[in-house]
UniProtKB/TrEMBL annotation:
It holds the Pfam family GntR. Keywords: DNA-binding, Repressor, Transcription, Transcription regulation. Gene3D superfamilies: GntR ligand-binding domain-like, Winged helix-like DNA-binding domain superfamily/Winged helix DNA-binding domain. It comes from the Bacteria. InterPro entries: GntR_C, TF_FadR/GntR_C, Tscrpt_reg_HTH_GntR, WH-like_DNA-bd_sf, WH_DNA-bd_sf. Residues 6-74 form the HTH gntR-type domain. Transcriptional repressor for the pyruvate dehydrogenase complex genes aceEF and lpd. GO terms for molecular function: DNA binding; DNA-binding transcription factor activity. PROSITE patterns: HTH_GNTR. This is Pyruvate dehydrogenase complex repressor.
Amino acid sequence: MLPKALTLTHQVAQQLTRDIGDGVYPVGTKLPSGKDLALRFGVSQSVIREVTERLRAHGLIDSRQGAGCTVTARTQSGGFQVPQAVGADRADLGAVYELRLDLEGASAALAAVRRTDADIKSLESILQSLADHLYTPEPAVELDIAFHVAIAHATHNRYYVDLLQYLNLQIRQAVQTARTHSLALERLPDAVHREHVRIFDAIRAGDALAARTAATSHLQKAAARLNLDITPRQQ
């Protein structure tokens, strides 16, 4: 049985998809703000974030930080799709993690070569905030995701960012599940944080091989914490 939050996400996404298809929100117009949508549907803003990520993944909207969500199409894209809910198909979720191993391992390696001082400051700031919220579930999830996205930005290759954003819904649900599990085990969030720090240290040092190794090791351990069977990678 799927968690209630995922059911709410599915229900709200279905309604907004119908609204867009029916022309309630025409192509080129903006959706209401996250706060307004949360009030309309009686859900949290975190649910609305998952909904908009799902709509973006289906090619219905485009979202930019500070600019809101703009409708880009009335019908869903028929392109590449990934599973929408953690636990819906564990084999598919494991496959997503295998994809993340290659994507984020390469992203970390490239970030180590191309990172700027501004990138390092951004990563350092996120890590500090994460350290302050390790045992606070919702901020920890958002900051965890922000850390991985900031690494993609540090590659200075927009397609790493675009692909990671496409997978953002699946990543958020996986991180939520992993962090819920971690909070049930004493000091595990601290161990996860040390994995993030190792990735950061390698990127700051400009060591591409160490960055790749630290990123793939972190994701392998994250998958193991979710009891996912993924193929071991040779470093």
